[in-house]
UniProtKB/TrEMBL annotation:
It is a single-pass membrane protein. Binds 1 FMN per subunit. It is found in: Mitochondrion inner membrane. It comes from Dendroctonus ponderosae (Mountain pine beetle). One of its GO terms (cellular component) is mitochondrial inner membrane. One of its GO terms (molecular function) is dihydroorotate dehydrogenase (quinone) activity. Pathway: Pyrimidine metabolism; UMP biosynthesis via de novo pathway; orotate from (S)-dihydroorotate (quinone route): step 1/1. PROSITE patterns: DHODEHASE_1, DHODEHASE_2. PANTHER family: DIHYDROOROTATE DEHYDROGENASE (QUINONE), MITOCHONDRIAL, DIHYDROOROTATE DEHYDROGENASE (QUINONE), MITOCHONDRIAL-RELATED. It catalyses: (S)-dihydroorotate + a quinone = orotate + a quinol. One of its GO terms (biological process) is 'de novo' pyrimidine nucleobase biosynthetic process. The lineage of its organism: Eukaryota, Metazoa, Ecdysozoa, Arthropoda, Hexapoda. This is Dihydroorotate dehydrogenase (quinone), mitochondrial.
Length: 379
């Protein structure tokens, strides 16, 4: 009986090892990820970052095709699929994320000084809705620690393109200074910068999206970026909330066209405080909702902001779990897209799956490159 148990355990171990090595989608989705979900969501998140940090997931053997390459901000992205901010908050997992096939990695949100974030529990899975609610509250190791990690990663010749998502400290008396400090700290070590004023989990943060506050903030960060002693200067993006009213979106589009406030792009969109019809146990938890319930509204907002800004570069986020989802956001006006919540449910093979499906769709509809499809649905 003992021998039978040993043999069975060995067989199961070998089978699991082969499935992990070969990045078997069904095994990850139906076996491995449900096992990971036996852990508390935040512990599972920490495990995922640990595994990525130590590059324990076998590297994807998928070679990005020419059709998936896209040039944005003067930089060539090997594919348009990135990891959204919130997964690798402190720059620990950069190379591991590159290994599983991401075309770019966004770090953060990073605050000037280390802070623990909100009290636990602060992240909840909604499996029946393929969604997540989080209220992390910008837990961060701080500028200095994260800058060191990015600098070390940059020493690797295979380092991916890196964006840094900037936040403010919860107790800060001068949020504008926090963002300016972020520009000055990371401007020379990243490929783009994001001003995140749309998280719902830091008190009063979203008030910075208001017309007068936004003008004041953008004047300061644009000037800080323009005076950086680097060439070329990093593109500056603004991350928006999905809960903005139509007039607020119009105000933002008008402000970012002003020379002194002109950013290079938008990230559309952050998590929502709205609660559509949800089926899962934790659906009434306070925090930002992400994942499948955000898919349609984020795609619509991409199209709306693309029209309002007369074609500004947009990174599309919200509910992407298939190549079709990514394709729809690209046709709505996104030059690049990001995923996160769907990765929680399907695991690393999802990245390759989305890229393969996206490539098939582009070819099926006669596109020779991502660039040709961007904004195709805008009339």
């Amino acid at each position: 009986m003992r021998s039978l148990l040993y043999v069975s355990a060995s067989a199961i171990g070998i089978y699991a090892g082969v499935c992990i090595y070969k990045r078997n989608e069904k095994f990850y989705k139906d076996v491995l990820m449900p096992l990971v979900h036996l852990l508390d969501p935040e512990q599972a998140h920490k495990l995922a970052v640990f595994v990525s940090h130590h590059r324990l997931i076998p590297k994807s053997q998928q070679k990005d095709s020419e059709i998936l390459k896209v040039t944005v901000f003067g930089k060539e992205f090997p594919n348009p699929i990135g990891i959204a901010a919130g997964f690798d908050k402190d720059g620990k997992a950069i190379m591991g994320l590159k290994d599983i096939g991401f075309g770019f990695v966004e770090i953060g949100s990073v605050t000037p000084h280390p802070q623990p974030g909100n009290e636990k529990p602060r992240v909840f899975r909604l499996p029946l809705d393929m969604a997540i609610i989080n209220r992390y509250g910008f837990n961060s190791d701080g500028h200095d620690e994260v800058r060191t990690r990015i600098t070390n990663a940059k020493a690797d010749p295979e380092v991916p393109l890196i964006g840094v998502n900037l936040g403010k400290n919860k107790t800060s008396d001068d949020p504008v200074k926090d963002y300016v400090d972020g520009i000055n700290t990371f401007g020379s070590v990243c490929d783009y910068l994001v001003v995140n004023i749309s998280s719902p989990n830091t008190p009063n943060l979203r008030k910075l999206q208001n017309k007068d506050n936004l003008k004041h903030l953008l004047r300061a960060v644009v000037e800080a970026r323009n005076t950086l002693n680097v060439n070329p200067k990093p593109p500056l993006l603004l991350k928006l909330a999905p809960d903005l009213r139509s007039e607020e979106k119009k105000d933002i589009s008008d402000i970012i066209k002003l020379n002194e406030c002109k950013v290079d792009g938008l990230i559309v969109c952050n998590t929502t405080i709205e609660r559509p019809s949800l089926k899962s146990k934790h659906s009434n938890e306070v925090g930002g909702l992400s994942g499948a319930p955000l898919k349609e509204s984020s795609t619509q907002m991409i199209m709306e902001m693309r029209k309002l800004t007369k074609g500004m570069t947009i990174i599309g986020v919200g509910g992407i779990a298939t190549g079709q989802d990514a394709y729809e956001k690209i046709k709505a006006g996104a030059s690049l897209v990001q995923i996160y919540s769907s990765l929680v449910y399907e695991g690393p093979p999802l990245v390759s799956k989305i890229k393969s499906e996206l490539e098939e769709l582009l070819q099926k509809h006669g596109y020779k490159s991502i660039s040709e499809a961007i904004g195709a649905n805008i009339k």
